Amino acid sequence: MGETVLTGRGASSGLAIGSAVLARRGESGCTTGEAKADALHLREAIDRARAEIENLAADLDDDAGEILAFQIELLDDGSFMDPAFVDIGQGATCKAALDRAFAAQVALFESDDDPYFQARAADVRDVHERLVRLLSGQSEPGSELPAHAVWVAEDLTPSLFLTLERKGLAAVVLARGSAASHVAMLARAREVPMVVGVGGAGRVIGDGAELVVDADAGEVVVDADQARLEACRRRLIEQRDAAALARAWRGRTPVTSSGRRIAVEINVEDPLLLDRLDPADCDGIGLVRTEFLYDDAGAVDEDRQFAIYRRLLGWAKGRPVTVRTLDAGGDKPIAGLTGEPEPNPFLGLRGIRLSLARPEVFAVQLRALARAAAHGPLRVMVPMVSVPEEIDEVRALLGRMVTDLLAEGRAAAMPPLGMMVEVPSAALCARDFAVDFYSIGSNDLAQYVLAAARDQPDVAHLYRPMHPSVLRLIREVVEAGRDKGVLVSLCGDLAGEPAAVSALLELGLERLSVTPAALGRVKHAIADLP
Ligand code: PEP
Ligand code: MG
């Protein structure tokens, strides 16, 4: 029998080979039995659920711990659980009463305008499923997980994921699920490969089947053929070696062999991942992509944005934190914000162009940034700038926000204002922009210089960030920065590629910002250079 390749979407990257463990009904989140129980039965289930969650939360102090603390609060909240007891008193079964109480709460969270509270609905459902399982007398799921287990289910709750991860989970395959869910964030933070949206996973994959989970390709291969298995085993060994090297170098100071100190900062897309990083391993945050603050339901409000920026400053412990304003559009459409699809999205209303066209949305972010700037070394960076007027406009807006905030009696400060250099006009005329720093976005710069879209496989052979034309523009910006006495960094993916580091340093760059996973390998590459 040949191999079967199932496709989905990678929600947490990585490669794994393991045996399928199919979630049984009741473990994937489906409810079981019709428990005919009384109030005492429910009280016992609540107490046991509390004990299970407490046990799970014992040594977690990151966002996973926060999710579990929220779940314990729910169980302790009389106004939340009491209606179930009232229903039981009026003759409802335990299960029916519980379903009603939770349905009301889930609906309440789901209808909230704030995406933060909407995401909480999944955590409420998670508690519901735990209670239903306890009422039906089932033990903790996945209690006998074989080595290299790949959990295959319809969907997965955050707390069950944490339970399974403790037992040594190799990967997760979900028929439904979403890359934006809490459980996907937890998987990324814990480096467990996860593929979601694999329709028919439960039907096609048998319990115990040997699986190759390639989350980078969004593929799950059942009964892979020998050639594929061997190639994957080789990749796993390479990845393990690379990971060991990265771990060994991650904490070192980035200096060349002749003692030239290079600043290495990190790019952050998902602040949850910072929980596992030591700020001392980097020279600060060179790029925060803030698209995670926006979704179809709108933007996170000013107070929550402010809290998130402050949290980043707190994490960095005095190191600079460079927050990029919203960079929607192009390869990052956001429904409800970027509007109708454009014929040429990369040349249209994206980045700063969109923010200036939606002042009501932009103002919320600028106010939150101006407030956070009063609490630490925050820098604000503007994406997709193509002409100097755009920066002038942002500077004026930001200045007005600071004045307004101070007039309202709030703490605020004008942060250093910089620009992404990712459009050829900005690179060629960098000197003309009144900025406090430049950060070169080689991902976009390459696509605009070579006229080859970064997300178009048919022209991937022309998309070359190391092409001499791109390198020449990088040199222009480095020289402009030197002449003007302002910092220049490079935060595109090129900075994280060891093979490119030598060329970048030769061009005069002394500041790179890379994905956290690349910290070790980049420091290793720097140490090899003169
Ligand atoms: C870039 O274009 O190089 C960059 C860092 O920005 P993004 O990849 O988010 O467009
Ligand atoms: Mg870009």
Outline of the structure:
This protein has 530 residues and is α/β, with parallel strands linked by helices.
Shape: globular
CATH class of the largest domain: Alpha Beta
Q: How would you classify the quaternary structure?
A: single chain
CATH architecture designation of the largest domain: Alpha-Beta Barrel
Q: How many helices does DSSP assign? A: 18
Instruction: Detail the poorly predicted runs.
Output: 25-35
- Major sheet: order of its strands? 1-8-7-3-4-5-6-2
Structural class: alpha/beta
Strand content is 15-25%
Q: Taking Cα atoms only, what radius of gyration do you get, to the nearest Å?
A: 25 Å
Task: Please report the distance between the alpha carbons of the first and last residues.
Answer: 55 Å
Number of domains: 3
The third-level CATH topology of the largest domain is TIM Barrel
Give average pLDDT, whole number: 88
Count every beta strand, where a strand is a DSSP E run of 2 or more residues. Answer: 18
CATH homologous superfamily assignment of the largest domain: Phosphoenolpyruvate-binding domains
List keywords for this structure.
15% strand, 3 domains, eight-stranded parallel sheet, TIM Barrel, alpha/beta, 530 residues, single chain, binds magnesium ion, Enzyme I, Chain A, domain 2
